[in-house]
Amino acid sequence: MPTAVLPRNGESYFDAVGDDSGMPEILRSQATETAAGWMVSPEPFFAPEGLGVVDEADAVWLARRLTAHPLSALADKVVLSGAADRLPKTYVRCGRLPVPVLENLASSLETQPHWQVERWDCGHDVMITEPDRVVDLLRRIEAGRPTVAARPAVS
């Protein structure tokens, strides 16, 4: 999974990012102002450039496909059974998304036995900007090969 927040059982996205980030309040306000309180517009947080898509043709392609996001997907608490806790998992830390909570999460996952963390110098939407790299990672995971060869620091 590319850089993402991973709420624990009983947490929401908002819980996982924390109030200190300002994101919960900003997104709730945006939903109230623009979409009758229940939808979050893709602008400005989920705009192509914010997701690391800077190639003009790719940005135009992506912008046409972005839609509003239900606020409940961010605010509702997840219910997890724990069944996946022992399965191997891979987290890709997209280094051009400078969000402290994501860096803290990646560092924490690196210490957990069922997680492999890859650190890539890319934006969040790496599946658009570097699709071959994503395919290579998925093939390595499927083949059971280690995904982490080296862990360069995120700049």
UniProtKB/TrEMBL annotation:
InterPro entries: AB_hydrolase_fold
Protein name, per record: Alpha/beta hydrolase family protein
Organism of derivation: Amycolatopsis pigmentata
Lineage: Bacteria, Bacillati, Actinomycetota, Actinomycetes, Pseudonocardiales
